[in-house]
Amino acid sequence: MPPCVTQRLSNGLTTAVVHRPGTHQVLVCLMVRVGSRHEDPAQVGVSHFLEHLLFRGNEAFPDADALNRAFEEVGSMLGAQTGVETTEFEFLAHPERLDDGLGRLADFIRRPTFADLDKERRILLDELAYDYNDQGSLIHLAALSSRLMWPGHPLGQNVGGLPETIDTLDTGIIQAHYRRHYRPENMVLGLAGNILPEEAFAMAQKHFGDWTPSPPEPAPVPVPAPAPTKTGPHLCLVNDTDNQFHLQLGFAAPGYNAPEEPAMILLTRILDDGPTSRLQRTIREEKALVYHISAALSAYWDAGALEIATSVKASTFAPLLHHLLRELASIRDHGPTADELERARMRHLFEVEFSRDSLSAQIDRHVWPLLYATPRDEETERRLIQEVRLDKVCALAREVLAPENLHLVLVGPLGADVDNTVRKDVEQYSAT
């Protein structure tokens, strides 16, 4: 049997099953092709609002308490998250209760009542308040970085929305967003665990097969990402009365459908993949400038971002920024070493093997790509990673870490000395 078996219902719902007979559970994940990049600027946050509102009840389970009890009876609570491109709902089911679980998931997603909208609005506004300081300035690093990297484009919008947009979202707007995007052909139902594909397909047909929502037109396609402007460096400095500085460097990068993605994965691992990786070793272990520093790749279907983030006490900010930019300039100009590449490759190949033991990793590998990409089996993944040569990684580092591609966000107790430090070090990064 192949690692993942898929079937498409007549209404367009794709069901994908990863059979793992040695497990004692089934992970169920329903993925919807909708997120913040599908939103009109005047309705930013509507996807996240809708996700929350679905938990307020449906025709079968009238309130949040009844809904939560219903899912606990089949295995675990139902969880959810909204992102830039997808909204996901998942729960664990006991194999003997899977049919009941899928029935309850169908009730949840197909028959919401959109109850308690104003109560949920208050919760969302409280959640959003953490993104702002007492002066009303946005201080959320990821939101600031996205806005700086993709100004005026949906990729730059905050997943949680803005206080002013959340205030204006009413039942009509949310229901219209639901009808537009929550459609069988715009979803993938994934199951991983102790369930045979033919049994899972029969259950999917039973609970979702008669779902024919109207109107019949397909869900909108998201606006393609613009080409990186490469006109930087771009700076965003936000004053905040904290005793620390919070720093994020963003670089436009290839998305997960790009041929450069395997090399980009390895470049990211070279920067941050445990204490022996470049930034952890030099910035944290050797110079002891920070407690934590991270480098991560946020990849979308047509674009991506390499994001390096850390926090540091005010007295250490200047040496931190100096050494961090110098380390990135070194990788940009001279490339990583052959040893760094081979260690990153080894670590990634280990992770491919380890992922066999994780149901969520199997969902990520085989099911999630059905929304926007072509699933990549383990053999293909290993081959692509093995084929990445050092010269390709060096060329990619020069392109991605180019000065004109730098987007720097800094939140903290600003002053003339801080502004001068930032501009001097960024200028030096551009000159080297």
Describe the structure.
- The chain is globular and about 65 Å long.
- It contains 16 helices and eleven strands.
- It is of the alpha+beta class.
- A hairpin with a 4-residue loop joins strand 4 and strand 5.
- It has a six-stranded mixed sheet with strand order 1-2-6-3-5-4, sandwiched between helices. A five-stranded mixed sheet has the order 7-11-8-10-9, sandwiched between helices.
- It folds into two domains: about 200 residues, 2-Layer Sandwich (Cytochrome Bc1 Complex, Chain A, domain 1); about 200 residues, Cytochrome Bc1 Complex, Chain A, domain 1, CATH 3.30.830.10.
What labels describe this entry?
single chain, 432 residues, Cytochrome Bc1 Complex, Chain A, domain 1, six-stranded mixed β-sheet, globular
DSSP strand content:
15-25%
Oligomer: single chain
- CA-based shape: globular
**Count of DSSP strands:** 11
Global Rg? 23 Å
Structural class category:
alpha+beta
Count of helical stretches:
16
Topology (SSEs and partners):
Layout: E1 5-8, E2 14-19, E3 26-32, H1 46-54, H2 64-72, E4 79-82, E5 87-93, H3 98-110, H4 117-129, H5 141-149, H6 163-168, H7 171-181, E6 187-193, H8 197-208, E7 234-239, E8 244-253, H9 261-271, H10 278-286, E9 293-299, E10 304-313, H11 317-334, H12 338-354, H13 359-366, H14 378-387, H15 390-400, E11 406-412, H16 416-431
Parallel strand pairs: 2-6, 7-11
Antiparallel strand pairs: 1-2, 3-5, 3-6, 4-5, 8-10, 8-11, 9-10
Helix pairs in contact: 1-7, 3-8, 9-12, 9-15, 10-11, 11-15, 11-16, 12-14
